[in-house]
Amino acid sequence: MAFLSKDGMVSLLNRLTTHFPSGEIAYNSYTRFTIRAAKRSRGTQSVADLVKSPGFDDPREPEHWNPKLKLIKEILLSREPEVAEFPTVLRLYNQLAAHSTAWSRKGTIVLHFRF
Description:
single chain; about 120 residues; alpha+beta; 3-stranded antiparallel β-sheet; 6 helices; 3 strands
């Protein structure tokens, strides 16, 4: 979704909810901070120009774009069991971040919606 503009995301979600009578969709979401950081990080320069999403900070924002969407779950990577497999520094950072939703949202987020 980072490679779509906000209008592109809204259009895609509208087409999906119009085409299918019901369903679920889950996708990586990015906060405004994450988008800014990705565009400035040397490690992501190869794709930075392809990122079109402005990001959004409220996981319920897509519900405002399309009233058929209902957020089921916001999955914050820092709170997932996979963190135990991370290298030490990254694992410790994520374990600390897990105590704060705001800090956890500075990392990987998956939003799961039903319509």
